[in-house]
Amino acid sequence: MANSNKPVARLSGMSAARILLAVFFAVAVIAPVVALLLHLASPGALEVFSTPAFATSLGNSVVSSLLGTALSVALALAAALTLTRTNVPLRNAWAIVLTLPMLIPSIAHGMGLVYLFGSNGIVTNFLGTSWNIYGLQGIVMGALLYSFPPAFLMLYDALRYENCQVYDAADIMGIPKASQFARITLPYLARPLVSTVFATFTLIITDYGVPIMVGGKYSTLSVLMYQEVIGRLNFDSGVAIGVALILPAIVAFVVDLLTNAQGNLAFSVHPKRVGKSAGRDVAGWVLLVALALFLVSPLAAFSVVAFVVKYPITMTPTLANIDRALVFGMDEYWLNSIVIAITVSVLGAAVSWLAAYVSARAQGGFGRALHLVCITTMAIPGIVLGLAYMMFFKGTPLYGTIGILIMVNLVHFFASPYLMAYNALNKLNASLEAVGQTLGIPRRRMILDVFVPQTLGTIIEMASYFFVNCMVTISAVAFLANVSHMPLALLISDFDTQMLVECAALVSMVIFVTNVAAKVVFAAVKRTLAK
Q1: pTM value?
Q2: Is residue 380 in some structural domain?
């Protein structure tokens, strides 16, 4: 009798997981987006598409995004090739330096450019120039700062796992290096490049942090949406612009889905044999140094501006800005961000891992449908998701609480950790559940004793991803936060509006230091658990 109850318990446990996941995605993803799309039917929303402001902002967004994407992807490819195709030393250290901009909000990048190249900027005053940072050039420079790191990581990972044995064969056959690059490397990179281009374009066109800081009169769709919703409370315009911003994200999602469905051309741990070439290595070193200086320069500017009396009038060092920022509640907002980031790290890792287990290891159509819904969250820009949440949850007990910030961040950053877990679980033996069932081991014990330990490193990486992104995001929470539970990143724009640029720089440094400390802690935990 006891044995006959075990299959029922396993079935009910999996059924409960499916029901919980179905309810979660219905409430947290499908319903808010549907509510947003239904609101598009209102006459006020449809009229927005014919306004001169929309047309101008659309054109500006496309131009700035195309330029930023071209520059970012080209430099990312050059950097990735340098680290995988030259003998430049300290490759891991260079890779870390080139991704440091991911640890601060995009609005901080725009602010850093003002500190450096504005009318009273550090570089401007030092060189005695009068170059204008505001407008298209500023947006493109800012877009490069925050879109380069993810583009670099995508291409760097692709090149690290290329099947390099084919190059050995090409060398034996006497094929010139230029021909090898054109006939082997570029075809291999075709799919990763397409995915990187679309992902970078989407990242740039949906961001409002940089344009709102350095755009000036060069209005973009994301800034227009922010101004309409926050400044004028014009939700019809916000909905229309939000739908327009979803379109490039959907295209990027479909392209990425199609290219990933075709699979990678190869996967190999066979390293590339790099010949000696002093000129090539020196050129690669110069490129890396130049990129590092540009990418880290805003952080250097923050460290200067945050600790002076009054930038740029009185550059005397001081610690008084810490007290000024604390008076405005920096410590409380930092604590809000920590609570949100830790909660999302724990819940996000658990929910995304559970969803990955159900979709990767369970049989039937539910798993396939769940997988599609999970990766579809990638196609919803943060600023659009925030507006959808505001419209759908307004008037509910969840609205106006820290809980809605936790939920929107969990959904906003869900796709990447989910895919980490999905890929890790798919690598495990497909017969593990069948073996467990044969031995009479409940599925719950299999999960806790086998699947979780085998993917523990991935789970730590998932939690780290959630934490860092929750600390830097502004787009997903801009429409939902209030004074009582506002995340620290939103305090940057508040300080800048009040002309407290020193405090804004200090907040950016606090976020950066917090994320660096978190990355160190997560890495230490991962190393400890791996022993």
Answers
A1: 0.86
A2: yes
